[in-house]
């Protein structure tokens, strides 16, 4: 089992901010996404490459309750996982790679940020391909 953890100080744009930027001007959206992913990449610079089959815990520490949790979660996870894929830390962010996402939220006026913990199983043996299916 491989475990990696890193801290992103402050906040990332929520889903509403991302959608607003995308709807107003694609250059504004691209700049917002790039600056956010650059911030994540800097914070995750010491994280090793992870195997297929990871579970990711997101501990969102927010300064106030102005944004609803689903808005924070949707924007944050998208930006973080895309940055981790872009850095080669994750092989992808599809069903074959990300096996579980576990978010928590808490107020932290003095130290807002996001603690990201990734657990990877070296022996997961998942392909990550389109052949992965869910059976019920």
Domain module tally:
1
Proportion in helices: 25-40%
User: CATH topology, anyone?
Assistant: 60s Ribosomal Protein L30, Chain: A
CATH architecture: 2-Layer Sandwich
- The termini sit apart by 27 Å
Largest beta sheet, briefly? 4 strands, mixed
Number of strand elements: 4
Question: What integer is the average pLDDT?
Answer: 89
Radius of gyration: 15 Å
Strand content: 25-35%
Major sheet strand order: 1-4-2-3
CATH class: Alpha Beta
Element layout with pairings:
Blueprint lengths: L1 E8 L5 H10 L1 H18 L10 E9 L6 H18 L11 E10 L5 E8 L16
Parallel strand pairs: 2-3
Antiparallel strand pairs: 1-4, 2-4
Helix pairs in contact: 1-2, 1-3, 2-3
Summarize the structure.
The chain is α+β, with helices and mostly antiparallel strands and 136 residues long. The protein contains three helices and four strands; from the N terminus they run E-H-H-E-H-E-E. The protein has a single domain (2-120), classed as 60s Ribosomal Protein L30, Chain: A, CATH 3.30.1330.70.
Which descriptors apply to this entry?
alpha+beta, 60s Ribosomal Protein L30, Chain: A
Give structural notes.
The chain has 136 residues and is an alpha+beta fold. The chain has one domain: 60s Ribosomal Protein L30, Chain: A, CATH 3.30.1330.70. 34% of the residues lie in helices and 26% in strands. The protein is built from 3 helices and 4 strands; from the N terminus they run βααβαββ. A 4-stranded mixed β-sheet has the order 1-4-2-3, with helices on one face. Helix 1 runs antiparallel to helix 2 (26-43). The longest helix has 18 residues, at 26-43. Mean pLDDT is 89; it is low at 123-136.
